[in-house]
């Protein structure tokens, strides 16, 4: 007899175990989804994303309900109960179904001796309702260190940031300017019965009222639009592109911003797109192919210019550095579990190192746009301040824009439940000698 496939909740518990062990949802969810019939995949996805989003609150409740923590070898059952609590607190699923299916999943995880515990914990959770959250980390469902850092960095804004992190992000599109105007595409969406509105700041952006699968978007496969958050789209305008320029996208994968800049200016001399990740770089080519765009792709550590640079300086450089991604927690709630406080100082070192290296290959008269999807000043305006202190030939440009908060050395956007992600941008120019 063949092995029984694992029930959905047991799969969800295993995915959460993998996240706890350091894998991102985008790494460990697809293989689990592949084990399910197409109909069940959105349910597994919602369970995993939702449980990560509310992990710290649910964990607080679960620990309060257990007499003692489960043994390490029973950790999957701990996660199974978190998934069930997520459903009891945040879904419409009937509680008897949550209880029965969780007990069944516990058996499928080969832990029949724990079915009584699962049943007892979930029954009392159902009967007693959600407890009052003991502290802010539980209430806002964030790791303690992230909460404390946000309170410290943004004493007037931290609550708003945390609430936005827990909200569902909207689906936002970027219309390919080479194919359609934004108004033309809004009309196509209207004809397809998809309710949408133009974004406030990104000129080619459209925000959908409800997310839809991309294959419902008119002409998606033919490159009419891409899915890209509004804040990410703002990089193009800051680059001040013009025909004939040689442009570098130094940290390019998966290529959202590379494609956006190519769509915006069709007569650039060359666009060089670099990424150090061999796994991620092919995604840039896939996006270029779908949109029928061209760039020179190189897998390299951008900071190690000796290994890849041909000696011809760039007119424009986009430096979208690796960062804590704390501005996009709402889209990647696993960041709450994956990121550590101790990551931030090394990241800041990498960011400043990349900025120094990219500055050395920028043409005099050229422009560099520094970007992160972080809300920590340490990775944002403080990097720019540190850089300006050591580079007396760098000039900070104040872009003429309506969005974000002026930090004196770049602009900070906070995640907004009604629109864009959290991002940071700074624009630097190298004066002609
Ligand atoms: C924020 S993501 C870039 C997102 C991309 N610009 C977009 O809009 O689609 C940062 C990227 O930097 C890459 N990266 C990290 N360190 C790098 C380095 N030293 N050189 C080049 N790429 C690097 C990572 O692999 C990752 O793909």
TrEMBL record:
The active site is at 373 (nucleophile). GO terms for biological process: regulation of DNA-templated transcription; rRNA base methylation. Its EC number is 2.1.1.176. One of its GO terms (cellular component) is cytosol. Keywords: Cytoplasm, Methyltransferase, RNA-binding, rRNA processing, S-adenosyl-L-methionine, Transferase. Its main location: cytoplasm. The keyword RNA-binding applies. It holds the Pfam family Methyltr_RsmB-F. GO terms for molecular function: RNA binding; rRNA (cytosine-C5-)-methyltransferase activity. Residues 161-431 form the SAM-dependent MTase RsmB/NOP-type domain. It catalyses: cytidine(967) in 16S rRNA + S-adenosyl-L-methionine = 5-methylcytidine(967) in 16S rRNA + S-adenosyl-L-homocysteine + H(+). It is found in: Cytoplasm. CDD domains: AdoMet_MTases. InterPro entries: MeTrfase_RsmB-F_NOP2_cat, MeTrfase_RsmB-F_NOP2_dom, NusB-like_sf, NusB_RsmB_TIM44, RCMT, rRNA_ssu_MeTfrase_B, RsmB-like_ferredoxin, RsmB/NOL1/NOP2-like_CS. It is an enzyme of class 2 (transferase). S-adenosyl-L-methionine binds at residues 251-257, 275, 301, 320. Specifically methylates the cytosine at position 967 (m5C967) of 16S rRNA. Belongs to the class I-like SAM-binding methyltransferase superfamily. RsmB/NOP family. This is 16S rRNA (cytosine(967)-C(5))-methyltransferase. It comes from Marinobacter nitratireducens.
């Amino acid at each position: 007899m063949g092995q029984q496939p694992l029930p959905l909740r047991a799969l969800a518990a295993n995915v959460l175990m993998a996240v706890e062990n350091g894998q991102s949802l985008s790494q460990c969810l697809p293989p689990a989804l592949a084990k399910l019939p197409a109909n069940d995949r959105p349910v597994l996805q919602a369970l995993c994303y939702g449980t990560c989003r509310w992990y710290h609150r649910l964990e607080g409740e679960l620990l309060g309900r257990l007499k003692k923590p489960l043994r390490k070898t029973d950790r999957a059952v701990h996660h199974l109960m978190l998934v069930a609590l997520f459903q009891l607190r945040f879904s419409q699923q009937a509680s008897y179904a949550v209880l029965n299916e969780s007990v069944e999943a516990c058996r499928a995880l080969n832990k029949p001796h724990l079915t009584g515990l699962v049943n007892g914990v979930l029954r009392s959770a159902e009967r007693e309702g959600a407890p009052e959250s003991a502290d802010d980390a539980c209430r806002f469902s964030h790791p303690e260190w992230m909460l404390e850092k946000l309170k410290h960095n943004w004493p007037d804004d931290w609550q708003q940031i945390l609430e936005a992190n827990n909200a569902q992000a909207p689906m936002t599109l970027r219309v390919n300017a080479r194919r359609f105007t934004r108004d033309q595409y809004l009309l196509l969406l209207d004809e397809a019965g998809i309710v949408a509105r133009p974004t406030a700041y990104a000129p080619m952006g459209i925000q959908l009222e409800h997310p839809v699968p991309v294959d419902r978007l008119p002409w998606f496969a033919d490159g009419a639009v891409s899915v890209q958050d509004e804040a990410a789209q703002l990089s193009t305008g800051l680059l001040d592109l013009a025909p004939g320029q040689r442009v570098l996208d130094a940290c390019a994968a998966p290529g959202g911003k590379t494609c956006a800049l190519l769509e915006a200016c069709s007569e650039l001399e060359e666009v060089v797109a670099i990424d150090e990740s061999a796994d991620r770089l092919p995604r840039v080519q896939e996006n270029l192919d779908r949109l029928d765009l061209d760039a020179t792709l190189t897998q390299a550590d951008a900071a190690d210019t000796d290994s890849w640079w041909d000696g011809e300086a760039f007119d424009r450089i986009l430096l979208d550095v690796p960062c804590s991604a704390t501005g996009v927690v709402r889209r990647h709630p696993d960041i709450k579990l994956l990121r550590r406080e101790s990551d931030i100082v090394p990241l800041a070192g990498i960011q400043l190192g990349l900025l120094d290296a990219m500055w050395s290959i920028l043409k005099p008269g050229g422009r560099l746009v520094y970007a992160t999807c972080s809300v920590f000043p340490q990775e944002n305006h403080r990097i720019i301040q540190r850089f300006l202190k050591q580079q007396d030939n760098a000039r900070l440009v104040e872009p003429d824009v309506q969005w974000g908060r002026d930090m004196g050395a770049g602009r900070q956007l906070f995640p907004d439940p009604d629109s864009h992600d959290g991002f940071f941008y700074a624009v630097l120019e190298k004066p002609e000698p």
